[in-house]
């Protein structure tokens, strides 16, 4: 599982089981996204979701207060777009981005690593959908090929898990939290290589 242990699990566990971004970090990241192009609030949510492979989806209750702060502090401005608000970065906002470029690049790189990990997990649980068509397309590396050829108990368990997830979908926020907790614990047990706490008499 090269690239999975140190990349996705490390980053995702830190973001998923603790805070994701502080208020200040999120505000600065939103500025960086606005520097790329003016956006509506829901578009910024979608961008963060896409860049993290669906792992990080901030709620409107998080995004819009951050955008309001950026507007009130003169780092962003709002243009009415029908009934919606289109947010644009200001010169002061661009200066803020330049002052925090290193942090922004690190944060966006973190989301990209998580997205790569999410894609890898998808291939693990449903390798048939990533085999490629008749054009002889190849998957990313030989390690993935070995995994896809597994026809033992692990493959059967993986298919059972996929079926269980499909049966429970769509799920509520509380159910999603319950399921993610189960999967996170399973992932950590797998990474520990069967090591368990010694039993006490």
Structure in a nutshell:
The protein is 64% helix and 6% strand. It has 201 residues and is mostly helical.
Describe the structure.
The chain has 201 residues and is mainly alpha-helical. The protein has 9 helices and 2 strands. Helix 2 crosses helix 6 (101-125). The chain is elongated, with a radius of gyration of 21 Å. The chain starts with a helix and ends in a 10-residue tail after the last helix.
Keywords:
elongated; 201 residues; 9 helices; mainly alpha; single chain; 64% helix; disordered N terminus
Order of helices and strands: HHHHEEHHHHH
Number of helices: 9
- Structural class of the secondary structure composition? mainly alpha
Query: How much strand?
Result: 5-15%
Strand and helix map with partners:
Layout: H1 4-17, H2 23-36, H3 41-51, H4 60-72, E1 76-81, E2 84-89, H5 91-99, H6 101-125, H7 142-148, H8 153-168, H9 173-191
Antiparallel strand pairs: 1-2
Helix pairs in contact: 1-6, 2-4, 2-5, 2-6, 3-4
């Amino acid at each position: 599982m090269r690239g999975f242990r140190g990349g996705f699990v490390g980053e995702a566990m830190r973001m998923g089981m603790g805070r994701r971004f502080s208020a200040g970090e999120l505000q600065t990241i939103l500025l960086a996204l606005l520097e790329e192009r003016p956006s509506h609030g829901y578009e910024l949510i979608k961008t963060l979701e896409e860049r993290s492979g669906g792992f990080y989806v901030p709620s409107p209750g998080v995004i819009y207060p951050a955008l309001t702060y950026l507007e009130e502090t003169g780092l962003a401005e709002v243009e009415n777009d029908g009934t919606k608000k289109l947010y644009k970065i200001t010169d002061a906002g661009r200066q803020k981005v330049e002052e925090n470029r290193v942090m922004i690049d690190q944060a966006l790189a973190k989301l990209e690593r998580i997205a790569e990990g999410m894609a890898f997990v998808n291939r693990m649980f449903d390798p048939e959908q990533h085999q490629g068509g008749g054009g002889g397309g190849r998957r990313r590396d030989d390690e993935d090929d070995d995994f896809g050829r597994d026809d033992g108990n692990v493959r059967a368990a993986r298919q059972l898990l996929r079926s269980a997830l499909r049966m429970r979908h769509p799920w509520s926020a509380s159910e999603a939290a319950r399921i993610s907790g189960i999967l996170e614990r399973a992932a950590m047990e797998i990474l520990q290589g069967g090591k368990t706490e010694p039993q006490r008499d």
